[in-house]
Amino acid sequence: MGLIDKLFGKKKEERPVPTPKIDKPSEKEIFSSPSKLATWVDEYVIRSSSVEDDFDMAPDEDARESLKITCEQVERLAREEGLLRAVGASYLIKQYYDDSFYLKYFSAIYKSIAIHMYSEPNPEEISDTRNALETYVSSLANPEDDELKEFQKQYLRRVYDDNDNFYKLMLGGIGTLAINTSLNTFEVMRDAYYKVTQGMSYESAKLIAEAVEKVESENSA
């Protein structure tokens, strides 16, 4: 036994502290809870791309110079991408869940969007994000606006309101790019929803429903 062991006793072997096991909610639990679904959307939809990466969505240098698109407008465009993805996910939830579920989800998601957009948002930025999300989703859900003109107008006002070529951008169909971001996210979310709730993709469920409807129609004829 060494001198240190004689003076202080043999050092006890350190045992690793066990890490508490955290049970993650199942997919069905996530898609059945407004708060869990909001957390899931934040992690896998909104933050699927960072604001820095979303700068890649900006027009190229020649287009920016031609249309006098400023650095501030490019920055607003990049921030808006996360919001547009959230719009697509939120539209799915508004379409497939009842009002109570959607309102609870909505209350849980809009601040997360603002944090993604601004890192440390102030109350005004949080409120603006909330209003923008609500308006975008309402525009998508409006059956009387097939071309989603209000959606495009809101996007252009939020990103290019101070651009000298505002109307040129509007007539050039820039707003359709924002629509595509939201609707593409909606379609991905719809597939996820069907796979969790019905065990198959939306297209597969649609084909089955159409086949059943055809058989029923033939039997009743």
Describe this entry's structure for a reader.
The structure is a single chain. This protein is mostly helical and 221 residues long. Helix 3 (34-44) runs parallel beside helix 7 (99-118), helix 7 crosses helix 8 and helix 9 crosses helix 11 (174-198). The model is unreliable at 1-12 (pLDDT under 50). The relative contact order is 0.10. 71% of the residues lie in helices and 0% in strands. It is globular. The longest helix is centred in the middle third of the chain and has 26 residues, at 71-96. It has helices at 3-8, 27-30, 34-44, 51-54, 61-66, 71-96, 99-118, 123-141, 149-160, 166-171, 174-198, 202-220.
Give me some keywords for this one:
single chain; 221 residues; mainly alpha; 12 helices; 71% helix; 0% strand; globular; disordered N terminus
What's the short version?
With 221 residues, the chain is mainly α. Helix content is 71%, strand content 0%. It has helices at 3-8, 27-30, 34-44, 51-54, 61-66, 71-96, 99-118, 123-141, 149-160, 166-171, 174-198, 202-220.
